[in-house]
Design brief:
- The protein is α/β, with parallel strands linked by helices.
- It has a domain of 259 residues: P-loop containing nucleotide triphosphate hydrolases (Rossmann fold, 3-Layer(aba) Sandwich).
- The chain has 18 helices and 15 strands.
- The strands form 3 sheets. Strands 2-1-4-5-6-7 form a 6-stranded antiparallel sheet, covered by helices on one side. The protein has a 6-stranded mixed sheet with strand order 8-12-13-3-14-15.
- α6 runs antiparallel to α12, α8 packs antiparallel against α10 and α17 packs across α18.
- The protein is globular, with a radius of gyration of 30 Å.
Length: 560
């Protein structure tokens, strides 16, 4: 999740420090106030190209830094670890642009290329609109959205494993078919790789257990502190523990139970609660005894996990599959001694592996076909509600060429849309209107939100060309989406702004002849005034303010 943005000397921004929160946040302000500057700055931190015009007049350089919480993003943590860019559960991307046009990028304080920043940024933020960070425009992400919606994790794992086996067998067949000199070089390489894996000695399931143990040891201090605090608060603190307070209350009520039998019933309940508290405190004590700070073991685990990641990266496989690689490579090495017999054997194994892969791929295709039909209808229905009457959405599954296998299945997945009635459906990447594209993206994201891979979504121009009831529906969809992800929306519509969980206002001031832009988080009163301004009129009347407050109050009643 995006936690914080810091901007200094960028465009007409002197300095802005902005905290962002979970839920739906809107960004509003008068035309020309600089709402796009925030997205432009964020884009630079995510790897966009820069030029010297972006540096504020009179400043030496512009600087943008963005902080993310990646604790719940395993793929991002692995990505950072593999490139030795990890830093606890926080991730910072920083970009500087000097007035002579030179640009530098950093990930967690380490210098990084724009390509690396862009690759990481695509896993952290999804910007919906006319923007290059729109992940939904890429075919691999369209496929992932469909698979996430259909919960294909198990099927994808099977297809990937069967493809890996088939691919390795084909590679072995190809290598064995080479000339003796090439075969000898391959044999030397295999001998080295087998020895390396034997030295590691990784057992089945060991990697997952190591990761669990590493996570526990890494947080041992916090666990011990929490257990001590809980045990002390529940039982060990004689004067103010929960157990002693429950006992005092029970005793007081028991003294009066002859006058009011109801108090006796309550005292009995408190006695049961005290017993449970005592049991919980006892369990905490036992658990505390099992926790231990062991820096040596932590370092040992860290080194071993790092070794597994190194080998996984070297062989282009997942760390969880490293333990299977020794048997595969050892078998290939043994087969080198009897290449002719092994070649004949491989032909049969490749045929069998291909049949197994194709069977698994067909299951995935069948499930994708069914899920695509359901998603077609739901997204098309959402498009109608979002002001695209007569528009349609469909998912096209195009089979790969015969015998062209893939770890992701037997077909290419494409999203097709028609935003207006009578127009043929086209690839989503060909949709020209930024507003339509944003609303189509919103229609899809609301449905797949609970399985979304990217935690922070930004919608730019989502309300262009709409108003009234449609704008309110857009706002409702965004608010619903905000219950599953972090949503930031640049909007001109009061109906959308009134439905936000948080409201940010962009304003422009003239300071000693210099134009500057600022961003502020509005309180409830300020928010009413801003929504009233958006409702229109030169003068904000009491009636306009009342209408704005009513709109905001109504938003609190809306649930997903």
């Amino acid at each position: 999740m995006l936690n914080h943005i810091h901007i200094r000397d960028f465009a007409i921004v002197d300095e802005v420090d902005l905290d962002l929160y979970q839920g739906m946040s809107v960004l509003t302000g008068e035309t020309g106030a600089g709402k796009s500057i925030l997205l432009d700055a964020l884009g630079l931190a995510l790897g966009d190209r820069a030029d010297s015009d972006m540096v504020r007049h009179g400043a030496e350089r512009a600087e943008i830094s963005v902080d993310f919480d990646v604790a719940a993003m395993k793929d991002v943590e692995v990505w950072l670890q593999e490139r030795e860019l990890d830093s606890d559960v926080q991730c910072q991307l920083r970009r500087t642009i000097s007035k002579d046009g030179r640009s530098r990028g950093y990930i967690n304080g380490s210098p990084a290329t724009l390509a690396l920043m862009r690759e990481l940024g695509e896993q952290l933020v999804d910007i919906h609109g006319q923007h290059e960070h729109q992940s939904m425009m890429r075919k691999e992400n369209q496929r992932a959205l469909l698979d996430d919606y259909a919960q294909h994790q198990s099927l994808l794992r099977d297809v990937g494993q069967y493809y890996f086996k088939w691919s390795r067998l084909n590679e072995e067949y190809k290598n064995l078919s080479q000339a003796d000199e090439d075969r000898s070089a391959r044999q030397q390489l295999l001998s080295f790789q087998v020895k390396e894996l034997e030295t590691l000695g990784l057992e089945s399931g060991e990697f997952e257990k190591m990761e669990e143990e590493y996570a526990r040891l890494s947080n041992a201090s916090a666990l011990i502190e929490a257990c001590n605090f809980a045990s002390n608060a529940l039982y060990e603190n004689d004067e103010g523990s929960v157990h002693s307070q429950l006992g005092s209350i029970e005793s007081r009520l028991n003294q009066l139970r002859d006058f009011d039998p109801k108090l006796g019933e309550m005292a009995d309940l408190l006695n049961s609660a005290a017993i449970q508290v005592q049991e919980a405190a006892s369990e905490l004590g036992h658990h505390l005894d099992s926790l231990d700070l062991d820096p040596a073991r932590l370092q040992e685990l860290e080194q071993r996990i790092s070794s597994v990641h190194d080998l996984a990266r070297k062989h282009h496989i997942d760390p969880e599959s490293v333990h299977t690689l020794l048997d595969i490579l050892s078998e290939e090495l043994t087969g080198m001694e009897n290449a002719d017999q092994r070649l004949a054997q491989l032909e049969g194994e490749i045929s069998s592996a291909a049949q197994t892969y194709e069977a698994a791929a067909r299951k995935l295709t069948d499930s994708r076909t069914k899920a695509a039909g359901k998603l077609d209808k739901l997204v098309t229905q959402n498009m109608q509600e979002l002001g695209m009457k007569g528009g349609s959405f469909s998912i096209q599954l195009t089979p790969h060429e015969a015998n062209k296998y893939s770890a992701h299945g037997a077909e290419q997945v494409d999203f097709l849309v028609s935003a207006n009635p009578g127009q043929p459906e086209r690839l989503l990447s060909k949709v020209a209107s930024g507003g339509e594209l944003s609303r189509i993206s919103l229609a899809i994201q609301v449905i797949v939100a609970s399985n979304a891979r990217i935690p922070s979504l930004i919608f730019d121009e989502v309300d262009v060309g709409i108003g009234g009831g449609i704008a309110e529906i857009v706002g409702r969809k965004l608010r619903t989406l905000g219950q599953h992800a972090q949503v930031l929306c640049v909007t001109h519509q009061p109906q959308v702004a009134a439905l936000a969980h948080h409201h940010l206002q962009v304003s422009k001031q003239n300071n000693n002849g210099m134009t500057q832009t600022g961003v502020a988080l509005l309180n409830e009163g300020e928010r009413v005034v801003e929504v009233a301004r958006m409702l229109g009129g030169v003068e904000i009347t009491s009636q306009t303010l009342s209408h704005a407050k009513e709109m905001i109050d109504r938003s609190q009643e809306i649930t997903a």
